[in-house]
């Protein structure tokens, strides 16, 4: 039950937020509801992901820069080509086997305008990424390199040590 404490506290916090009032009655009611939910609908306790603060700061900085640059690139593409803006789908090697890390990568990729994960083929280890502004193979290589760098940043921040080593080896091999 000790491993469920963060879950109970989180559900209690959501309960209090839903009521919009902090009182003893609301907090105790939230604790009762949270305990009932965790006992009646148990979820598996997941292994904690590593958290590296410096790598998270690098990831946040990378995402902020990518957000601004992508916004300008999409704006230019739309101003230049309008409804005939060029786009395509790029296959990118997947550098993680962790579902939670892959979800973070997909979410981070969706933050920037002009690209998102269209499909994730875990069996083959391939992301299929839709990208705006693809005129040829060189643009596809740039998108692939950008997605690989994003994956590496997320894995550096939240991946296990063996995953980081595999990520760096694969990135070096793919970008050669």
UniProtKB/TrEMBL annotation:
The chain crosses the membrane at residues 12-39, 59-79. It is a multi-pass membrane protein. One of its GO terms (molecular function) is monoatomic cation transmembrane transporter activity. GO terms for cellular component: plasma membrane. Coiled coil: none annotated. InterPro entries: Cation_antiport_E. Keywords: Cell membrane, Membrane, Transmembrane, Transmembrane helix. It is found in: Cell membrane. Belongs to the CPA3 antiporters (TC 2.A.63) subunit E family. This is Multisubunit sodium/proton antiporter MrpE subunit. It comes from Pseudonocardia endophytica.
């Amino acid at each position: 039950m000790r491993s469920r404490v963060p879950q109970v506290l989180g559900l209690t916090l959501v309960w209090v937020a839903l009521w919009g009032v902090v009182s003893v009655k609301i907090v105790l009611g939230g604790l009762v509801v949270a305990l009932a939910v965790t006992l009646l609908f148990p979820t598996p306790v997941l292994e904690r992901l590593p958290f590296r603060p410096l790598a998270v700061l690098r990831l946040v900085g990378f995402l902020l820069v990518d957000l601004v640059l992508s916004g300008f690139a999409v704006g230019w593409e739309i101003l230049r080509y309008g409804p005939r803006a060029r786009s395509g789908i790029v296959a990118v090697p997947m550098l993680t086997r962790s579902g939670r890390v892959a979800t973070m990568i997909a979410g981070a990729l969706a933050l920037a305008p002009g690209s998102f994960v269209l499909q994730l083929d875990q069996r083959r280890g391939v992301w299929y990424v839709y990208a705006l502004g693809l005129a040829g193979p060189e643009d596809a290589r740039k998108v692939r390199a950008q997605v690989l760098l994003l994956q590496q940043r997320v894995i550096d921040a939240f991946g296990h040590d063996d995953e980081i080593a595999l990520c760096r080896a694969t990135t070096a091999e793919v970008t050669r």
